[in-house]
Q: What sequence folds into this?
């Protein structure tokens, strides 16, 4: 029963990893761009929510909605105003620019908010759980995070599959010149993709901020799990990213239970490397890099 | 003639003279680092040239050259909470010595304090410490704030042969972590803080006031602090065992671990009444919330590092009430400043007024400059580092951190270069002025030898309310 409990907590943790990874996967899928500032943008969203709660006294739920909208706009402007100009023949340019962006965000947050740990308070929901048996309890908050991940990814998949704009995303991803010839404005599509990616990472950032304390320097730390989830899941597949996150979460918790405390993160990384060796394209690769 | 040129002239041959360019460069960097923290661009500003005239005017004694004191602090980065009061302290220090200090050579020397940011990175701390010595030409080094800041800076001072005074780092990581040999000690570096024997005494002192089964679920991470605390020979496990407690070890987890279900299950099935250990703040919050979710409800949770500062407690929220931790300094400690005569309470009040924030334990860093000034007053030749070092070595004084000497022998000086200072136990409670206020709940250890300090408690340990 203890093992089942540990595995379930790992699955729920995977939801958080997947939420952080989804935006990264979307941006990579649509414009082949690696956004190294992705984790920091999630932490930025947490600070935006904190600022709204503290300055305007909005309830956390509404502050989160405003944060998501703000981050959506930030994403659009960021891509259209800056990152679009870095796209082109040289793949390293966006990497360098987003790396710089990551440093700017971290230090900007330290200047405005100081390096103090901060927290967003969602009340008792954070601490209560459903008790299945003595050894098995499922916390409400981890469950909410997981369901949020499923909902966000489901909605995104539906959008990509069924909507005209979603098809434009995929068309641009498959062949940007052909898409342009068909009348799709790539610059606009890219900006929208980044906007959606940041809206999703805003959800992740706010949930992370409720889950534990956060400070300006935590963003880059988030990035490695996000990368692992994306790569295990397979580029371009959102459900794959969720599965990648779950595999990572479960490997970490089971690894700790089986081999001891120091092994959790190591086992997570080892499983990732194994997947990379056995299935380099991930579980459900959809996009094929030309 | 500017004061930096005087300095370089006076110290020629001891180290590379400062060129105008390199001085401007480093001063600029320090200024930038400091300025970035909130517009206090000129903390670095030397009181040198102003007070030189003051010094000459106020005393019959002649004016000496400016003495430069370097201070490395984590002003930014994950350890920034430890450096929070440091810039304010530099202002206090400069105000206290604005007329210069009459040193042992009979001359009134202005004191210039140069603060540099370690960015919470030990490599960076070593780099800026080297800069302070080779480019700024400091006479004395000061450092505080955890092994990650203190150890690299002290190592640099030792290598570059500059006297270094430090606190705020448990003495075992400071001494053994730097490869110290108790038979030999270090030459240039002196330190004042408590050790693991003190924190163990304080923790068990608090637990002994509660009804528990004396079983501890212990969480020590795989980092410099955790490994030091968990060391089977010099760390806490043998001390806890000697005090009659059983330790259920959660294992050396990595900082940044997201899920603690395996450890929590282990503590639950072992029926631990006490949670102890040392965490970085976000990891503790994760652990503690998951404990609630998984139904692990210890009678006491006493944790190092994560629960030191009010800002962190506010981030933890309501589930932080009743948690206990170590307390190295408080407004209720019966000590006074040798520089200004302020009591601990007055220093805390000055901080609250000046910075608009609740007091916190890092105000203890104040004492390092007290030691520096006291030593300078006794140093007969400030041009000779060995003479300054001898003065530091001979320190025997009362500071805002308590009594400090390095010549009393064990147990006050368990190893050379280290002076233990008092430690008490604090509990976080709902405050009247602030959401979280720390009360002193166990001060028995301070009363024991070798400290013999009576500190009144102002609260009582209580089981955590769920």
A:
């Amino acid at each position: 029963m203890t093992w089942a409990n540990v595995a379930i907590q790992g699955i729920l943790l995977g939801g958080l990893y997947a939420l952080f990874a989804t935006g990264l996967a979307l941006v990579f899928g649509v414009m082949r761009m690696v956004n190294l500032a992705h984790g920091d943008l999630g932490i930025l969203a947490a600070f935006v929510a904190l600022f709204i709660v503290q300055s305007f006294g909005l309830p956390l739920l509404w502050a989160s909605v405003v944060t998501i909208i703000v981050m959506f706009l930030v994403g659009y402007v960021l891509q259209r105003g800056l990152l679009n100009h870095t796209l082109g023949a040289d793949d390293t340019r966006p990497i360098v620019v987003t790396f710089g962006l990551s440093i700017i965000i971290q230090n900007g947050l330290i200047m405005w908010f100081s390096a103090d740990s901060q927290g967003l308070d969602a009340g008792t929901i954070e601490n209560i759980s459903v008790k299945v048996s003595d050894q098995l309890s499922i916390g409400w908050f981890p469950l909410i995070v997981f369901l949020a991940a499923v909902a966000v990814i489901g909605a995104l998949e539906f959008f990509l599959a069924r909507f005209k704009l979603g098809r434009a995303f995929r068309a641009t991803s498959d062949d940007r010149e052909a898409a342009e010839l068909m009348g799709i404005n790539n610059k606009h599509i890219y900006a929208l993709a980044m906007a959606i990616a940041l809206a999703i990472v805003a959800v992740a950032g706010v949930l992370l901020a409720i889950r534990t304390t956060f400070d300006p320097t935590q963003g880059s730390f988030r990035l490695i799990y996000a990368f692992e989830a994306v790569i295990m899941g397979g580029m371009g597949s959102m459900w794959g990213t969720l599965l990648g996150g779950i595999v990572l979460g479960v490997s970490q918790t089971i690894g700790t239970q089986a081999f001891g405390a120091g092994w959790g993160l190591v086992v997570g990384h080892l499983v990732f490397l194994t997947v990379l060796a056995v299935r380099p394209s991930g579980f459900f690769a959809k996009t094929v890099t030309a | 003639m500017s004061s930096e040129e005087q300095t370089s002239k006076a110290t020629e041959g001891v180290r590379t003279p400062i060129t105008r360019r390199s001085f401007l460069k480093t001063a600029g960097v320090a200024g930038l680092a400091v300025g970035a923290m909130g517009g206090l661009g000129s903390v670095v500003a030397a009181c040198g040239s102003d007070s030189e005239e003051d010094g000459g005017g106020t005393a019959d004694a002649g004016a000496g050259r400016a003495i430069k004191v370097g201070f490395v602090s984590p002003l930014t980065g994950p350890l920034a909470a430890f450096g929070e009061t440091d810039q304010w302290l530099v202002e206090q220090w400069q105000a206290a010595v604005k007329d210069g200090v009459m040193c042992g050579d009979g001359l009134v020397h202005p004191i210039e304090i140069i603060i540099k940011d370690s960015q919470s990175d030990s490599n960076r701390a070593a780099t800026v410490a080297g800069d302070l010595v080779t480019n700024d030409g400091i006479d004395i080094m000061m450092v505080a704030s955890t092994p990650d800041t203190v150890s690299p800076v002290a190592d640099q001072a030792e290598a570059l042969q500059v006297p270094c005074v430090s606190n705020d780092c448990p003495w075992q990581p400071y001494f053994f972590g730097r490869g110290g040999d108790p038979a030999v000690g270090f030459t240039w570096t002196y330190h004042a803080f408590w050790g693991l024997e003190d924190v163990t005494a304080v923790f068990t002192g608090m637990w002994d006031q509660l009804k528990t089964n004396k079983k501890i679920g212990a969480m020590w991470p795989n980092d410099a602090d955790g490994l030091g605390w968990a060391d089977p020979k010099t760390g806490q496990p043998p001390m806890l065992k000697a005090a009659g407690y059983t330790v259920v070890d959660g294992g050396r987890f990595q900082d940044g671990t997201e899920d603690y279900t395996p450890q929590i299950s282990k503590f639950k099935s072992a029926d631990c009444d006490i949670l102890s250990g040392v965490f970085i703040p976000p990891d503790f919050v994760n652990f503690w919330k998951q404990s609630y979710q998984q139904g692990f409800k210890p009678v006491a949770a006493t944790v190092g590092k994560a629960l030191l500062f009010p800002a962190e407690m506010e981030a933890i929220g309501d589930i932080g009430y009743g948690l206990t931790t170590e307390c190295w300094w408080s407004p209720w400690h019966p000590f006074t400043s040798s520089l200004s005569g302020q009591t601990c309470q007055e220093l805390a009040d000055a901080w609250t007024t000046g910075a608009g924030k609740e007091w916190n334990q890092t105000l203890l860093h104040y004492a390092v400059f007290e030691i520096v000034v006291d030593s300078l007053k006794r140093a007969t030749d400030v041009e000779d580092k060995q003479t300054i070092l001898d003065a530091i070595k001979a320190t025997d004084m009362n500071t805002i951190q308590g009594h400090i000497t390095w010549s009393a022998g064990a147990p006050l000086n368990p190893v050379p270069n280290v002076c233990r200072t008092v430690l008490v136990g604090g509990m976080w409670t709902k405050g009247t002025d602030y959401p979280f206020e720390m009360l002193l709940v166990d001060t028995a250890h301070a009363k024991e030898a070798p400290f013999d300090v009576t500190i009144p408690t102002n609260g009582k340990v209580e089981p955590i309310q769920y």
Summary: The radius of gyration of chain A is 19 Å. Chain A is about 75% helix and 0% strand. Chain A touches chain B through 48 residues (CB under 8 Å). The first strand of chain A starts at residue 129 and ends at 131.
